[in-house]
Design a protein that fits this description.
The complex is a heterodimer of chains A (329) and B (844).
Chain A: H1 2-16, H2 31-63, H3 66-72, H4 75-110, E1 115-121, E2 124-130, E3 136-140, E4 142-146, E5 151-157, E6 162-165, E7 173-175, E8 181-185, E9 191-197, E10 209-215, H5 217-228, H6 237-248, E11 278-279, E12 284-285, H7 288-301, H8 315-326
Parallel strand pairs in A: 1-5, 4-10
Antiparallel strand pairs in A: 1-2, 2-3, 5-8, 6-7, 6-9, 9-10, 11-12
Helix pairs in contact in A: 1-7, 2-4, 6-8, 7-8
Chain B: H1 18-25, H2 40-69, H3 79-113, H4 122-141, H5 169-197, H6 210-242, H7 255-289, H8 296-309, H9 325-337, H10 339-355, H11 364-387, H12 389-395, H13 399-428, H14 435-461, H15 478-505, H16 543-546, H17 550-555, E1 570-574, E2 581-586, H18 593-609, H19 613-632, E3 642-645, E4 648-650, H20 660-689, H21 706-727, H22 737-763, H23 772-803, H24 813-843
Antiparallel strand pairs in B: 1-2, 3-4
Helix pairs in contact in B: 2-3, 2-4, 2-15, 3-4, 3-5, 3-7, 3-13, 4-5, 4-18, 5-6, 5-18, 5-20, 6-7, 6-8, 6-20, 7-10, 7-13, 8-10, 11-13, 11-14, 13-14, 14-15, 18-19, 20-23, 20-24, 21-22, 21-24, 22-23, 22-24, 23-24
The chains are: A alpha+beta (329), B mainly alpha (844).
């Protein structure tokens, strides 16, 4: 097993190098993440100062002259630095934390606009946009956010516990069976960042990621309109043959392509899959080659994922399928 | 006892031949017989050795993982194997290394520090150790043949339910860990009774070495924390095997119930590991500074406070589960508060270092302690950071947390452990470990550790989640991970140097240098297999410093119990607070019985895991049989009063609260009660989550009041039988049929009450698989059956003792133990009936 896997891994290496969206909490582009980043630096600098203080005291305790050492040797040191000082610092920190939490709770209560239902499923994300006017638009593995507008995420799971984490936007929140957890986020600047499942969810947990696309409100509205529409009919000979293959090979048993007979709901909705920034929950870049590779070799690229590998297609058929899927923008 | 100056307990010269007799009585069996040894220095060394082996094995797994993660998109390990390896690494480090290692130090060092001849239940600790070694090795070996669990060491359902993890992998975790928990509890009982009842005369609680305090608190925490995870593992295994939906949301269960139970254990667990290590540091620093610990009382308070607070923190592992803001605030505050006791200890250590007349000596133990201080303080500071809820939203389940807890655990426990190896090796080795190799080991480990784990703080906030077997190499994590991997190998090299040192210099046996560090505590008295020649009278915290002639006096037999008056193994039992001599405890010696019992217990659990039910039952019967033979040899008759000091004669058999066995029984009852309280919490918790599946609205109402009424009557009647039987125990040895019948009736009533309870619910049509309500109703009976089974065996055992004329009104500890547990079981049973039958009626 391991030799074949390594070999397949080697082949896949170049494919995996896709777009390089960051998923760092150090580089925030969401309101919560910005607040937490400030909190982090306050605590880190304060903590570093305390750390240095302890080290210096320990050094003096060991190497200091007898007179200096005797000044450290009483219970006074314990009472002041071991009890008094932490009580003050910790109380301040606690209040700081509560203030941030409270602010988050208020943002949550105030939002009446867009809601996005995200369901974690082994090992991808089902994403449903719920607009204020009652429309429901299904997509997958990508979260689009209008910059400056609070958006409430409704987090659920279809199987085991997952955790939704887009570090540049906000902290994480778990997806737990039987519950709906809500989190309100606000993107502060346009750009593409990456997020990932943070709760170990079995087999391909490492390959359960997504992209966050923060857009200006106008760009977001335009994108949402396109996303709400049915799939574009295939353009050209290859894609047309590809669609034919898609529909006759049973792909529609699991996947939906709106506007065609394919209406499966087990796997991700593919209506606009070509327009996304990645494939297979941010495992591969979005390209015709990647589509072809995943169809044939998905159990090596993303082991244990629920899609069976399709080795039945000829090289030409694979090209057709890939060009069809890539064209679903 | 008066404080000094005091009269020597045995001022006269001792007769010839006493030392030879002690040597003969306490001799360690040779050859294969070594397996039957029970002496704490022998099995303690074995225990530490086994724990260290698991540390090395789990460390090798860590190196495999670090190799896989050295660069992005690596395929050195497969996804499935990596998932097994990280699960096994965490489980092994927590359950097979950390807890056993500190418990092992307790077994080995505690009797020496208290100058007791052995722990009060030598075979019980030997049993716990063998069960752990056999079970641990089988559990660990699953990773070699692709059968290791892969649900993470925390095993969150639903991922670990049969639906998502078919096969036996998860069961190995549940059953393997289940009985390792049992061995931890056996050890905890031993340590509590040991610390409270086998101290030397004069060593009041206020003069007890800090390590003994730490072990006492450690053991108490095990008693209250481990039952929660035992219940959790029972629930999960029952759901996996029989489909009782405790954790399935669709049937009214809740995945978060597991998390609550697991972390109610899991957080105290961290302090269970840390407190003894902190206790060891508090013992070593005064020696290296040659001055008493500054703030002894503050440290004792800090240890107790840590133990107490640690039970109020568990939810900080669940900040991101979407629990309400008020809970977040409470647990955030509690998580920060626990930093204060640690602060007290850190500054107390610094003050002690400064307090010596000479400068703090830099030896290998000192280096490891300073390394500990550096690493642990840093880990504590990041701990405060993650206690701030909004920051935890980012850090949780990222590599920042991996860095944080390795700083706390490796810093807080592994570095003190290595200091301990170097410091206390002369107690069991005839040669000291090398200062030169030790320095190499330290610097490699210290530099390696920080190189490996410091960058992970950054990796985590740069977005890398935990438990991923690979990562794309375009996210900027590669360099940081490569550094971490290099650090891991440097640290491993340090451990390697230590192993070389062990091989070259560790020689098990007596005759090591006496008190090489100039310590002030009793474990550095002259030692042999029987521990110290006589048990010293203690008047201060550092007896060896305050009474320079003590070693000589003790070795000349001028203190208590300089011989073996009953001609067998024995030690002195003193009162719990004041340490006044009370009686001479007759102790069992080497035996095969506990070994067979341990193998049988391990076999039972492991065979059950691979669904070999008949063999499992056979193995279980073997274990119980061995336990019965083992206990049959105990409860030996009184040898009358014996002289332990000039003019001081003590009894050799006591009953009631004076007896060490009564104390152990009380601790066992606390364990059982903790288990039941966890169950009670779970019942109410699931009701708050899913009131809709609860009777009477969502499930068949409980049976008529006749059923619980009859069950309750049986329990009370049974208790009456035991009470009566206890009053009329015969004064003379003889077969008293009436009393035997009473005991048998009591056993039958105890079992009958459970059977009736189950039957009643079955009649209503309620099935345990219907909903979480049904599962909880029957679970009460599962717990009650468990204790009823034990109680019934104990009653029948007492009847058998009566039959063989070994139970009288004087020699009655066997009966008293059965009766104590019987009364507890009646209390638990009545409470259960009230809950199961009363609560739904209250709702309806």
């Amino acid at each position: 097993m391991s030799f074949r896997a390594s070999f397949a891994g080697l082949i896949c290496l170049p494919l995996l190098a896709g777009c390089s969206a960051q998923q760092s909490a150090f580089n925030p582009s969401g309101h919560d993440a910005e607040q937490i980043n400030i909190l982090f630096w306050v605590m880190t600098l304060g903590g570093a100062a305390i750390f240095v203080l302890v080290l210096v005291l320990a050094a003096i305790a060991i190497t200091g002259s007898t007179r200096v050492r005797q000044r450290l040797a009483g219970e006074g040191l314990i009472n002041w630095l071991g009890i008094g000082f932490p009580v003050v610092v910790l109380t301040a920190l606690l209040i700081y934390g509560f203030v941030l939490l409270q602010a988050g709770a208020q943002a949550e209560a105030g939002n009446t606009g867009l809601r996005i239902a995200v369901s974690g499923e082994q090992w991808w994300w089902r994403v449903t946009y719920r607009t204020a006017d009652g429309r429901e638009i299904e997509a997958a593995n990508e979260i689009h956010l209008p910059v400056g507008q609070p958006v409430t995420l409704e987090l659920t799971t279809a199987d085991v516990i997952h955790s939704f984490w887009a570090p540049s936007i906000a902290g994480k929140l778990d997806m737990i069976p039987g519950r709906t957890n809500q989190m309100t986020v606000t993107a502060t600047r346009p750009g593409i960042t990456r997020g990932q499942c943070a709760e170990y969810c079995g087999g391909a947990h490492a390959f359960m990621a997504f992209h966050v696309v923060a857009q200006t409100p106008a760009a977001f509205e335009a994108w949402l309109e396109r996303e709400a529409a049915d799939a574009q009919p295939p353009q050209g000979e290859g894609p047309r043959r590809g669609q034919e293959l898609f529909l006759t090979s049973g792909c529609g048993g699991c996947h939906t392509v709106r506007g065609t007979p394919a209406d499966g709901t087990i796997g991700p909705d593919l209506t606009h899959v070509g327009g996304r920034h990645s494939l297979a929950a941010a495992t591969l870049p979005n390209s015709a080659e990647a589509f072809a590779a995943f169809i044939v070799n998905n159990q090596h690229i993303k082991p244990e994922n629920r899609m069976p590998p399709y080795g039945i297609f000829s090289e030409e058929q694979l090209d057709d399928l890939a060009s069809y899927l890539e064209g679903l923008r | 006892m008066t404080d000094k100056p005091f009269e020597l307990p045995n001022p006269d010269p001792r007769p010839e031949g006493e030392v030879e007799e002690l040597k003969r009585i306490w001799a360690t069996p040779k050859g294969f017989g070594l397996l039957t040894a029970v002496n704490n220095t022998v099995i303690g060394t074995l225990y530490i050795g086994a724990a260290f082996l698991f540390f090395v094995l789990a460390g090798i797994l860590a190196l495999l993982m670090r190799t896989q993660l050295a660069v992005g998109d690596n395929s050195f390990l497969s996804q499935d194997l990596y998932n097994q390896i990280f699960t096994t690494h965490g489980t092994t480090m927590m359950f097979l290394f950390a807890v056993p290692a500190v418990e092992a130090l307790g077994v080995m060092l505690l009797p020496q520090m208290l100058a007791a001849r052995d722990l009060p239940f030598p075979r019980l600790s030997a049993f716990a150790i063998w069960a752990y070694i056999i079970g641990g090795l089988v559990f660990f070996s699953t990773v070699l043949y692709d059968m290791a669990p892969k649900g993470g060491w925390f095993m969150y359902p639903p991922l670990t339910l049969t639906e998502y993890q078919p096969g036996n992998n998860a069961d190995f975790w549940l059953l393997g860990i289940g009985f390792i928990e049992i061995s931890a509890i056996a050890g905890a009982i031993e340590i509590i009774v040991g610390a409270l009842r086998t101290r030397p005369p004069g060593m009041t609680l206020a003069k007890m070495p800090i390590f003994a305090w730490a072990m006492l608190i450690f053991a108490a925490m095990i008693v209250f924390a481990f039952p929660a995870v035992i219940l959790a593992t029972m629930l999960l295994e029952i759901e996996r095997a029989f489909g009782w939906p405790f954790f399935t949301a669709a049937l009214g269960g809740d995945a978060l119930l597991w998390q609550h139970l697991f972390w109610f254990f899991g957080h105290p667990e961290v302090y269970i590991i840390f407190l003894p290590a902190a206790g060891l540091v508090s013992m070593m620093i005064p020696t290296m500074a040659q001055t008493p610990l500054v703030g002894y009382r503050l440290i004792v308070v800090a240890l107790i406070a840590t133990g107490f607070f640690s039970f109020g923190l568990w939810v900080h592992h669940m900040f991101t589960t979407g629990i309400p803001g008020l809970s977040l605030a409470f647990f955030s505050a509690a998580s920060m508060a626990v930093a204060i006791p640690s602060g007290i200890q850190v500054f107390s250590w610094i003050a002690t270092m400064a307090a010596g007349r000479e400068r703090f000596r830099i030896t290998v133990p000192s280096l490891f302690i300073l390394g500990f201080l550096f690493i642990f303080v840093l880990g504590g500071l990041t701990g405060v950071m993650v206690a701030v809820v909004p920051f935890d939203f980012q850090a949780h389940d990222s590599y920042f947390i991996v860095a944080h807890f390795h700083y706390v655990l490796v810093g807080g426990m592994v570095f003190p452990l290595f200091a301990t190896f170097y410091y206390w090796a002369p107690l069991v080795s005839s040669r000291m470990l090398s200062e030169r190799l030790g320095k190499w080991a330290f610097w490699l480990m210290f530099i390696g550790f920080n190189t490996a784990f410091f960058p992970m703080h950054i990796t985590g906030l740069a977005g890398m989640p935990r438990r991923v077997w690979t990562y794309p190499s375009n996210l900027g994590w590669d360099v940081l991970n490569s550094i971490s991997t290099a650090g891991a190998f440097i640290m491993a090299a340090g451990v390697g140097v230590f192993i070389i040192d062990l091989v070259r210099n560790f020689r098990f046996g007596e005759g090591g240098p006496e008190n090489p560090w100039g310590a002030g505590t009793l474990e550095f008295l002259p030692n042999d297999v029987y521990s110290t020649r006589s048990i010293p009278h203690v008047t201060s915290l550092e007896p060896l410093w305050d009474r320079p002639g003590l070693s000589r006096e003790v070795d000349a037999g001028h203190h208590y119990l300089p011989n073996a008056p009953t001609g067998r193994r024995e030690t002195l039992v003193t009162s719990a607070v004041e340490a006044k001599p009370q009686y001479v405890l007759q102790m069992p010696g080497p035996s095969w019985t506990h070994l067979v019992a341990a193998a049988g217990t391990a076999g039972f659990f492991l065979l059950l895991t691979i669904k070999q039910v008949p063999f499992a039952i056979a193995s279980g019967v073997l274990a119980i049989g061995a336990c019965l033979v083992w206990t049959w040899e105990l409860d030996r008759p009184s040898q009358g009063e014996v002289e332990v000091a000039k003019g001081l004669r003590l009894p050799t058999y006591v009953t009631g609260p004076l007896s060490h066995s009564w104390w152990a029984m009380v601790v066992l009852m606390l364990v059982a009660a903790s288990l039941y309280v966890s169950y009670f919490f779970s019942y109410l918790y699931l009701w708050t989550v899913s009131p809709d599946v609860w009777a009477p609205a969502g499930a068949p109402a409980p049976p008529g009041l006749l059923y619980p009424g009859l069950s309750a009557a049986m329990l009370v009647l049974g208790a009456g039988c035991m009470l009566w039987c206890g009053r009329i125990l015969p004064d003379t040895e003889g077969r008293h049929w009436g009393r035997m019948v009473l005991l048998i009736i009591a056993a039958a009533l105890m079992v009958g009450a459970v059977v009736l309870e189950i039957w009643g619910h079955w009649q209503t049509g309620l099935q345990p698989t219907d909903s979480s309500y049904g599962a909880m109703v029957y679970m009460a009976s599962v717990l009650q059956s468990q204790i009823a089974f034990v109680v019934a065996i104990m009653c029948l055992f007492a009847a058998a003792r009566l039959f063989t004329r070994q139970l009288t009104a004087q020699r009655r500890v066997t009966f008293d133990n059965a009766a104590l547990l019987y009364y507890y079981a009646v209390g638990q049973g009545l409470f259960g009936l009230l809950l199961i039958h009363g609560f739904p009626r209250q709702l309806g």
